[in-house]
Amino acid sequence: MQERVKLELPEGKSNLLLHSCCAPCSGEVMEAMVESGIRFSLFFYNPNIHPRREYELRKEENVDFCKKMDIPFIDADYDMDNWFARVKGMENEPERGIRCTECFEMRFERTALYAAEHGFDIISSSLGISRWKDFNQVTGAGVKAASRYPELKYWEYNWRKGGGASRMIEISKRENFYQQEYCGCAYSLRDTNLVRISNGREPIRMGEKFYGME
Ligand code: SF4
């Protein structure tokens, strides 16, 4: 495993609120920050995740890993109706398109609001580490959300670099994290299943209905 470099928060910032999308993505980010002595709390706000039991599964795994690492976990609760309202009309947009920009912005707006109200001076997210995501799209949404508050900054650190992407996979295996098979929302579940079916594979089954439109 490639050794990590020591990280420092930019611009003299000292208290980070880390938005986490899931344990597999945040594991490496968390370990890197603990190793560097960075003070942070984890913020779980992901109203995109569908259905509810998938949301609970991803959240519980984050809760358990935070306990293990002795990191404060902030549960921002499920906000599904607002998420569906926000992406209305974008149901058939492809991944990495405008629905995803809205999805990132919604999650980061809540992260930035919580940070500003609770004494955090910088935010970042584990979303940027995934190779399935457009790093610039994620970062752009984070910078935009933080810019609403004069004292707040979004840390544009690329967690994939310096071996981060491969350590993320190693940590997921070591911790036996649940490996989700789609990005998170009902539409990504539907589209993933359509691809699987067209390739002769079994769809991801979520109870009776497997298109994620419960
Ligand atoms: S595909 Fe992923 S990032 Fe895009 S809207 Fe759905 S959950 Fe959000």
UniProtKB/TrEMBL annotation:
It is an enzyme of class 1 (oxidoreductase). Keywords: 4Fe-4S, Disulfide bond, Iron, Iron-sulfur, Metal-binding, Oxidoreductase, Queuosine biosynthesis, Redox-active center, tRNA processing. [4Fe-4S] cluster binds at residues 21-22, 100, 103. GO terms for molecular function: 4 iron, 4 sulfur cluster binding; epoxyqueuosine reductase activity; metal ion binding. Coiled coil: none annotated. Disulfide bonds join 183-185. The keyword Ubl conjugation does not apply. Its EC number is 1.17.99.6. GO terms for biological process: tRNA queuosine(34) biosynthetic process. It comes from the Bacteria. Signal peptide: none annotated. Pathway: tRNA modification; tRNA-queuosine biosynthesis. It catalyses: epoxyqueuosine(34) in tRNA + AH2 = queuosine(34) in tRNA + A + H2O. Transmembrane segments: none annotated. InterPro entries: QueH (IPR003828). Catalyzes the conversion of epoxyqueuosine (oQ) to queuosine (Q), which is a hypermodified base found in the wobble positions of tRNA(Asp), tRNA(Asn), tRNA(His) and tRNA(Tyr). Belongs to the QueH family. HAMAP family: QueH. PANTHER family: EPOXYQUEUOSINE REDUCTASE QUEH. This is Epoxyqueuosine reductase QueH. It comes from Terriglobus roseus.
